[in-house]
Specification:
The chain is mainly α. It has five helices and no strands.
Length: 104
């Protein structure tokens, strides 16, 4: 279910909990950068996004252009999507007495 996973990732990146330590302008800056990059890439990239059809190629092009043109957003994105989610998972697992074992 890659579309569902991508939709969850977008929702996670575009939300902030009251206790999260993110800039008040983070979501507006991210949306602005996203739409500027998609507009620059043209209709084949912008149309699927506006129609809620998540496709790999337009997503990859947009994220690549955001990385190149707005590198200052990357730390906030990583914190919001990866670090905050990881901390919530650890807290959940500790409170549920769940252990995660990895074997190679």
């Amino acid at each position: 279910m890659p579309n569902l996973s991508a939709a969850w990732l977008f929702q996670k990146a575009m939300s902030a909990q009251p206790y999260d330590n993110v800039s008040p302008d983070f979501i507006n800056d991210l949306l602005s950068a996203n739409f500027k990059c998609m507009q620059r890439l043209g209709d084949p990239v912008l149309r699927p996004f506006l129609q809620d059809v998540i496709q790999f190629e337009p997503l990859a092009k947009t994220l690549g252009l955001i990385i190149l043109t707005y590198p200052q957003l990357l730390p906030s994105i990583f914190y919001q999507v990866l670090y905050a989610s990881y901390l919530k998972l650890v807290v959940f697992m500790k409170s549920s007495n769940v252990s995660l074992s990895l074997s190679f």
